[in-house]
Amino acid sequence: MSRNSLEKVLYDLSTSGANKKLFAADPDKFLGRYQLDVEEKTLVRDYRVRDLADRGVNTMLTWGFWLQAGKSNSDYMKIMKREEA
């Protein structure tokens, strides 16, 4: 697994409206552009931000990724504290 590849994906999704649209339309196709294994693709596709952080992904990136998807800050905090939303 590559933390750098995961961080690149989250950065790209958090900074580009075009990438957000591509991801929303076909997550698997979008994620196919990156060197990710099946498990990593699942973590991104399913917004498993706690698992991403546990793998060393920068939490500012997981937070931005979560928020850009229209998810709530309070739910993010619950998940990160392992209180689950």
From TrEMBL:
Residues 6-76 form the Extradiol ring-cleavage dioxygenase LigAB LigA subunit domain. Pfam families: LigA. This is Extradiol ring-cleavage dioxygenase LigAB LigA subunit domain-containing protein.
